[in-house]
Structure formats: structure tokens, C-alpha cells
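hey so i finally got around to running the thing on that chain from the lab meeting. sorry it took forever, my laptop kept dying and i had to restart like 3 times. anyway pasting the input first so we r on the same page abt which one it is
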Amino acid sequence: MNRWMFFVMFIIGSVFSGCSMNIPMEPVDYSLYEDGFRLLTGLEILDYDQVRLFPAKRVSVSDSFIQAVYLGQGTEAGFTAWDSARVTYSIDHDNQIRPHFQITHVFERPNSPTPDISVRYRFKDGAFFDFDTTVALYTYPYSSAEVFFPYKRIFRDADHNWIGSRVQDFILFDNCDNCMYVHPFGPLGIGKFDFTTSQFSVQINYGAGNFFTADSGYLFFELGAYNLYRYDPSSGTAASLWDSLGQGALQQIFSLSQFEEIYWIDGMTTWQHRLYVNLQGDHENNVPNHMLIFTYDGALVETLPFPRDVYDITIYHGYLFANGLSSDTIYKMDLSTFEVLATATAPAEYIEGFDIHKGYFYYTDSMHYMIGRIPLSALFDD
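ok and heres what got predicted. didnt touch it at all, straight out
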């Protein structure tokens, strides 16, 4: 018997030492045995929003004194049970009493990376004991995942229009050494969060868009999925690089009269002073995807067919990384041929934007209202 198993048996068993089989002779202060009940409780994260409660492995008790287990939330107003299970018992070959129960709970809207839960043990004498804990949902399916920044901290000092926002796209450190640029969902523009001062400032306001990127002192963003702009924060000026994408060179290249109806931008990034723009084609009209490569002045350098449906892209160490449009998959691709070299399960269920910096994969997690990060090596071997 290992040491911690003996510790659990001793703590919980001591509740009933010298007592009858079912009901203690005197009222018991179960709070004195909190450590034992915590060690008795196993908690497993099954999915991005799902947990399982069960007895920890190789735990035994001295008596069948626990009648039921509840999973819920405790507040000042009291305990609210979400799910419950009756406890059954068995005796193993070592003549140890083993408790058995299982509760599976799905969080409806886990808008926190670590939602608070309460576990209640109800005993046969009518008493009960509660303890509180948190669940690190963001660690599914990678235990090395971390909370980099909760959304509420980013927008804490922002204008009221930005407070409560969810981040759709972001860029780390590209235009400053200690900040990140963020673009939230909805008709808001790009803001900057300074890690040193914890101050948030709006860089530019514009209507609905999804993606942006940054390099060489510029911010590049799309508006309405079809229009591309270059913004210079130092001068506060925005220049239109391509108007509706189909009214000039691209219309001639693809021989399309209504470009914006069958193509839209689904990601952009920069690499070696080139702007990469991922165009998602309308497959119902047999329109394929393309990757367009531009200079920072808007000159089209190259037009390449692109084999995957993706949502957001970035380039790191000469490889293209992309987020699968309809699957929780991250692709690592050859930058020249766009051949898929490796795939990995995404560290969050609904990734909108991501970035890679100094060996870490940073990503939005709108289910848990945070930007998370995970070592890139946890996703890809090399």
C-alpha cells in the first residue's frame, strides 16, 4: 500500500473509529478531514467543456458511510447541484472497501478557463461536506497548455465599446517589443495592449473585418472580407491597397466580374517583406482557393493555388501554419508547395486567430475567454 493511499484511509477512516457501522455516536465535524476527501476525489477533463468526477484510483475507506456525491457550485446563497450519483461499495481481494461513483458534467457556457466547481459528499447520518476547486478546461487535450492572457484583462481599461469583447485575431510583438495588437469580434478595429503598463489603446477603428497582420511598422487588415488596407500607426493614416479585390488586377487574373461573391479573405500573414493573403473560394461554384503574395505597397507578386480550406495562417521558421476551417486541426505546410507535412489537434475547440513566437503557439480560445499558449513542440515534433 503506498503512502498517500494509507493517508486517505487513515483520515477518512478515523472519522468512524470507535463508532457504529452506519451512524457516528456523536456529531462529526467533517471539515477536519478535508484533505482526505480531496484525495478521495478524482477529476478528469474529457473535452473542452466536459469533466468526469470519480473515486481516485486505489482509494479505500473504512466504512460505507458516504451515501451520495454531488457536483455543483457553491455561493454565499448556498449550494446548487448540477449532477449527482449514489455511492456503491465493493470489497477487493485485499479486503479493502472501495467506493464507486461517477458523474459526467458538460458546462453549457464555460466562459472561464478555470470554472469554479463544488463537490458535496452526503453521508448516511444526514450530514454533508463541501469543498471548492477549479477545473483547468484549457488543458484539454494538452496538459502543457497555459493561460497566456484572459480577455477581461486585455479589455479591462478599454472604452466601453470594447469591454467584454472576445479576441478574433491578434499579433504578438511584431511592431513593438512588449505589446500585442488585438482585433475583437464585431465592428471594432485594432487595439494595442502594453504588457509593461497593462494599458489598452485603440489604434484604428473600422467596420467588420476578421483578420490583420503586422510587419515593418505597418498594420495590414481586411474590411468586409474583400478590401485590404495598410495602416501606419506612426502617422495615423490608412491607405487602401486593394479595393474589393476584384476591381483591378485580380479581376483580370481570374476573369471574374463579381469577385467578391465567390472569394473572401480567410487569413493573412507576412514573411520576408511579403504579404500573404489566403483567399477562400466558393466551392459550390467550383471556385478553388488561392494564396496571393503582395509587396507592402500592394503590387501582386504571385498567385498560387492553395489545397486546403483554412481559417487564419502564419509563417514561422519558413513553414506555413494554418487552422483548419471545418475541423479542429492545425496544419504545418511547405511554404513553396503548400504540401501538408504534419497535422495536430488544435488546443482549443474554436480557434479564430493564432500566432507563433519564440517556440510557442499562441491561440484564441473564445469558449474560455482567453488567449492561450502551448509549446509548438507539443503540437509538432520538429
